[in-house]
Amino acid sequence: MFALVDVNNMYVSCERVFRPSLVGRPVVVLSNNDGCAIARSNEAKDLGVKMAQPWFQVRHLEREAGLIALSANFELYGDMSSRMMTLAARYAPRQEVYSIDECFLDFEGVSGDLVGIGRDLRATVLQWTGLPTSVGFGPTKTLAKLANHVAKTADRKPGSYPAALAQVCDLGAMSRAELDDVLRVTDVGDVWGIGRKIGARLHEGGIRTVLDLVHADMASLRRQFSVVLEKTVLELRGTTCLSVEDAPSPNQQIMCSRSFGEPVTGLSELTEIVSQFASRVAEKARAQQSAAGAVQVFITTSAFRKRDAQHGPSVTMPLVRPTADTRALVGAAVHALAGMYRPGFNYVKAGVMLVDLRPQGQEQGELDLFTGAAEQEAVAHHQDRSRLMGALDALNRRFGRGAVGVASAAHRTAHSSHIARQERRSPRYTTRLDEVPTARA
Questions:
Q1: Helix (H, G, I), strand (E, B) or coil at 78
Q2: Would you say 254 and 281 are in contact if contact means Cβ atoms under 8 Å apart?
Q3: How far is Cα 100 from Cα 185, in angstroms, rounded to an integer?
């Protein structure tokens, strides 16, 4: 038996923990640069605010309906997520952290009333962190995900499902008739792994509900869709195709990109930005013990600035040897930037991506017939900067990101033009001593 634990409206809920006055009010959290809504409270959803809707399109609701907009505070959200995941892990032998607000739990071998366990888990997370959650149980991961959807929807929209399924739902404990009733009123597009395009195609073919999909002809589905949908149907029928992954597989690509608060035109400032991004992806590569075989860099102007000349180049720099060395990756990224930069353009976004990732230490040897043993040993010693990079990461963990780095990535003040706008960001209550709330009696 699997469970999916999901924080309701994660980003908004984190904000409400420290600002109870936001409870019951329409709230949205904006993306980097305060561009669009990436999280919405139920009250904001009721106002018609759509996911990823640009802020300028709904800004009038701030005045007309009391909509509150906050800048994203990912440092706070990440720390609150870690606390929630630690609590949830206590309830099952195995856990897979699926995203910042979701985790799967494997309850194999656990006896007892699962709904009761789910309610206790939910109450503990709420008491210890202040975060409201929904818990769904199912014989497969897809059914657990669907059960979570039912639990959340039944809580938010009374009458959509039986009231007993609100907050915690166990599809595995239902009779066949009860389960069919739930699947019959659930749109096929609500199934995990079925996107908008596939959902539309299924609707065109007469498969509108989850029950329709469960009873669909497998051979016909296989001909029209991929093996992924076939596995989804098998999971909905109770056959396990997906297991809990204790350790997530390493990323095949690592990227850092941001939009700027204001357009950037100079090469020196772009060099600083790209150096910071390259330093960040290098740190991420070392964290998953990977080395990159190439570095891809891009800069771009804004297509929405009609009067500006447009330029959006991208360059991939192959590396002689795979590496996670910050200095080598920053050097390659800056070299790529210098080759594609053109003066006179208003650049609004840049990014650095590591590609051709492989495990550290896995590299092809080279035959050198003309270098002596002593010289080869000196070169190898010079190339092995793992201890230096380890010290760099340790210092940045202790004193904060960016405390130590390469000179070209020197951080400027918060007023620098390339710093993304965060005019509405709340304090980082749990990770910064100078932002800890002060209680006055």
A1: helix
A2: yes
A3: 29
Per-residue pLDDT tens over the stretch 235-280: 999 998 888 776 566 677 888 888 887 889 999 999 999 999 999 9
Q: What is the pTM of this model?
A: 0.73
Close Cβ partners of 136 (under 8 Å, ≥ 6 residues apart) = 3, 4, 6, 144, 145, 146, 147, 148, 149, 150, 151, 168, 169, 170, 171
- Say if residue 317 is exposed, middle or buried (CB neighbours under 10 Å; 0-12, 13-18, 19+): middle
Number of CB atoms found within 10 A of residue 356's CB? 16
Edge-to-edge strand ranges of the sheet holding 37-40? 37-40, 27-30, 68-71
Q: What is the end-to-end Cα distance of the chain in Å, rounded? A: 49
- List of residues 6+ apart from 424 with CB closer than 8 A: 30, 34, 69, 70, 71
Q: In what order do the strands lie in the sheet with 168-170?
A: 94-99, 102-106, 2-7, 133-138, 168-170
51-to-47, 48, 54, 303, 423 alpha-carbon distances in Å:
12, 10, 9, 22, 20
Contacts of 388 (CB under 8 A, 6+ apart): none
As given in the structure block, the two tokens for residue 328 are: 């080598």
* C-beta neighbour count of 252 within 10 angstroms: 11
User: What is the DSSP secondary structure assignment for residue 192, as one 8-state letter?
Assistant: T
DSSP-derived 3-state class of residue 81:
helix
Q: What is the pLDDT of residues 390-425, one digit of tens each?
A: 787 787 777 766 777 777 666 554 445 555 567 788
Per the CB < 8 A criterion, the answer to whether 149 and 190 are in contact is: yes
